[in-house]
Input
Amino acid sequence: MSSTSVKPLRADEDYAIANKKYPWRWVSAIVIIALFGLLLYSAVTNPRFHWDVIGLYFRDVSIARGIQITLLLTVVCMLLGIVLGIVLAVMRLSVNPVVRAAAGFYVFAFRGTPVLVQLLLWYNLAALYPDITFGIPGVHLDANQIVTPLMAAILGLGLNEAAYMSEIVRAGILSVDSGQSEAAGALGLNRMQTMLKVVLPQAMRVIIPPTGNEAIGMLKQTSLVSVLAVSELLYSTQVIYAKNFQVIPMLIVASIWYIIMTTVFTLGQGWLERRFSRGTSRHTPTSWTDRLRKAMRVHAPEATGKAATR
Output
């Protein structure tokens, strides 16, 4: 009997794992890019957009001052909302029913009324309390001098934000396993030390993503204070187009600046999410550049890496 030659199998490193082809992904991407290109071409070639006016006022001094007021309101109101939100969240988890009910009523009242109504109420606080005494004899403060339009904006946005932040922080605290608090108590930590040193650091990975969304929402909500004549970005834009009657170009200027600031906030949020997710999840959130490279990849990195090391 003649012996037959057996062809040896190829080694593992001679193979490359190719991803499955998805032609409709490319088709849909090309269609979307084409539609976006047509839209962009229409906007650029349409003289009614008045791009010369947009370029003229894009770096106007009053616009720059409005951006500063917008960022100031965003930072101050978010800090006020976060600090007060943490306090309210701890109060809502208290074993004292009176403290828990007070925090619940605060959240109920501020979440149940529109932000614009709250801003107008704070702005007209002097109609209810013309003299602010804080219950201290001999103290008489003029409410009109204390509650300025800027102060009314900070109180309206910050106190309203605290109601939403309290629910975010409370959800983050409840996401931490109760065994962590029990272990901290066994080590001799009191309730406050356990909350600050054990529970809250672990809850940050749950708190950060919605807090970033709230910060971006706060950035856009600052436009509501234009009704109080606070010279933020939108109000500065309105003052300009009230003089030159270029309504659409000035609103486009404001929109572009809002998009720029929102993009910066979004990048910062993504960095914080990746930082606090390290060591807590197998799938750490990636940046948009990493996702784009992954979508365009032809071969699986595991296969190429394995072949390179062998």
